[in-house]
Write a structure and sequence with these properties.
alpha+beta, 7-stranded mixed beta sheet, two-stranded antiparallel ribbon, 6 helices, 11 strands, extended
Length: about 290
């Protein structure tokens, strides 16, 4: 387009008015002289208009003059980018399912089935929070309960949301204890630790744990169960046909949660759902015996 427009700039300024074969109106409102004057003015403006149009067209797909620092280029394969974005959303749904899904066993294909999440599955080991902030004594009681029901209290992991993590740090400090910093990273997850009389517990945060709830989990006993479609696998993309200008597709997959035996895990329910920052300073007075001289 620019190759066509640029030559017009030089041509339009030298074309005589008489050669344009313009029809001169005879209307009472516009005299021939006025019309000729307007035509000359328009012709003088054309080079400027051509420059303006050329500038606009030259900026197409370039965004000249904008700050593009640290910008990500458009994906070369839009379909692959959309599929990757959709899989990120599916991963979040799976994480939420692990904690909060309610079991549904469909009688027909018209009903969507659902796995049983941990909140529904755990029934043997439950410590009531009583509306209080999460503290190590609740965790200590739950460790003992799990062991009494045949589970192991070694290597368990406490999973709660940000409110629970904050309240646990606050109450631990009130008892003169601390939750260790996240000095380990396992499978991309920062892991803290807290000491109780009944043993050491790993601590991680997860936003999909319901407010007011904390889980004490035996992570090696948790497994994702896939239900692949013969010949296609699991979570595959398939065409649904063309709809207008769009190619409709879907990502199809089925999976569930295997928690082994529910008494290997436990939960604390009815906790405080808010976090209030502690006010003032906590003063601890200690007494040190005098060291005898000599």
């Amino acid at each position: 387009i620019l190759d066509i427009i640029r030559p017009l700039k030089s041509i339009l300024v030298i074309v005589p008015l008489s050669s344009l074969n313009l029809a001169i109106p005879t209307s009472k409102n516009i005299s021939p002289k006025v019309w000729e004057k307007k035509c000359k003015l328009f012709i003088r403006m054309l080079p400027t208009l051509v420059d303006t149009i050329g500038s606009i067209l030259s900026n197409l797909n370039k965004l000249s003059g904008l700050n593009l620092a640290n910008q990500t280029a458009n994906p070369q394969d839009i379909e692959a980018a959309q599929a990757a974005f959709a899989m990120t959303g599916i991963a979040k749904q799976v994480e939420n399912m692990i904690f909060n899904s309610t079991y549904v066993r469909p009688a027909t294909n018209a009903t969507v089935g659902a796995t049983r999440g941990l909140a529904e599955a755990i029934t043997a080991n439950i410590v009531p929070g009583g509306g209080n902030d999460l503290d190590i004594w609740m965790i200590n009681d739950l460790l003992a309960m799990i062991e009494n029901h045949g589970g192991s209290k070694v290597g368990l992991t406490l999973v709660t949301n940000n409110v629970g993590i904050s309240n646990l740090n606050k109450t631990s400090a009130e008892f003169g204890l601390t939750v260790s910093p996240a000095d380990r990273n396992e499978s991309g997850i920062d892991v803290r630790r807290v000491e109780t009389p009944n043993g050491t517990v790993n601590v991680i945060g997860d936003p999909y744990v319901a407010n007011g709830t904390a889980f004490l989990l035996n992570l090696p006993a948790l497994h994702i169960v896939h239900q692949p479609v013969p010949g296609k696998g699991n979570f595959f993309i398939e065409d649904l046909g063309k709809k207008g200008a769009a190619n409709e597709k879907q990502i199809y997959g089925q999976l569930g949660l295997d928690y082994t035996t529910e008494f290997l895990h436990g939960k604390i329910t009815g906790l405080s759902t808010t976090f209030t920052k502690p006010a003032g300073l906590r003063v601890v007075t200690t007494t040190t015996a005098a060291v005898p001289e000599g």
